[in-house]
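Hi support team,

I've been running sequence recovery on a batch of backbones for a student project. Most finish fine, but this one hangs at about 90% for roughly twenty minutes before it completes. I'm not sure whether the input is malformed or the queue is just slow. I've pasted the C-alpha cells below so you can try to reproduce it. Let me know if you need the job ID as well.

Thanks,
M.K.
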C-alpha cells in the first residue's frame, strides 16, 4: 500500500493535541500532517524495511551513546516544522543544545523544530518523488544534513543547505560530516 493523502477543508485543521489523539487511536498507522493541512497515512513497513530501519537506528544510537552530542529519534517521533507540517522521519537527531532549549512540556509533545539530521529510507511502498519532496521540505525548514537511502537501487541522495542534492551510487558508507562528527553509517547491511 502506498501512502494515502487526505485533503481536508481549512475548517477541519487539527491542533497538535487533536493530531496526537488521532495517532494514538490508530497505532498501526504512521501519520503525518503536511504544511497544507493534508493528512498523510502511511502503511506499516514490511520485514526487510523494518530490519533496515533497525540496523540504521542501531548504528545511530551506538554513535550517539559514545559521543553524547545530542538526541536521536526513531520514526515514532513527530516534529512540528516551522512551516506547520508535522513529520516523522525514519531516523533523526538534534544537537544537545537544541534539546536543552526545549521546555519539559515541549519534550513530551511533537518537537517544535526541524531536526539537524534526518534519514528517510525508501521502502517498497514509498513514492520516491514524494520522499524527495519531503527531504526538500526538511532543508527549507532548517535541516543541516539529510540522507535519502534507496536500497532497491543502491542509491543515496545527500541533502545539504543551499546545495543541489548529491547522488551516490552503491556507496559502502556515509559520513555524518560536521553535523554528526565521527559518525560513519555502514550501508552494507542496508543494501544487502
Amino acid at each position: 500500500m502506498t501512502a494515502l493523502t487526505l485533503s481536508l477543508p481549512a475548517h477541519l485543521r487539527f491542533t497538535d493535541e487533536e493530531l496526537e489523539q488521532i495517532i494514538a487511536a490508530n497505532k498501526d498507522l504512521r501519520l503525518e500532517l503536511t504544511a497544507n493541512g493534508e493528512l498523510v497515512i502511511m502503511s506499516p513497513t514490511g520485514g526487510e524495511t523494518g530490519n533496515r530501519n533497525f540496523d540504521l537506528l542501531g548504528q545511530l544510537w551506538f554513535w550517539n551513546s559514545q559521543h553524547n552530542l545530542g538526541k536521536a529519534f526513531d520514526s515514532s517521533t513527530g516534529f512540528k516544522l516551522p512551516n506547520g507540517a508535522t513529520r516523522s522521519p525514519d531516523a533523526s537527531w538534534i544537537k544537545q543544545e537544541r534539546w536543552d532549549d526545549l521546555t519539559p512540556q515541549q519534550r513530551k509533545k511533537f518537537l517544535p523544530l526541524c531536526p539537524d539530521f534526518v534519514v528517510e529510507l525508501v521502502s517498497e511502498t514509498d513514492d520516491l518523488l514524494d520522499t524527495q519532496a519531503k527531504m526538500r521540505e526538511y532543508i527549507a525548514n532548517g535541516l543541516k544534513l539529510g540522507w535519502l537511502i534507496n536500497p532497491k537501487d543502491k542509491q543515496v541522495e545527500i541533502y545539504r543547505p543551499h546545495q543541489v542534492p548529491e547522488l551516490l551510487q552503491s556507496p559502502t558508507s556515509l559520513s555524518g560530516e560536521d553535523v554528526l562528527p565521527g559518525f560513519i553509517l555502514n550501508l552494507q547491511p542496508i543494501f544487502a
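--
Follow-up from support: It reproduced on our side and the slowdown came from queue contention, not your input. The chain has a mean pLDDT of 89. No action needed from you.
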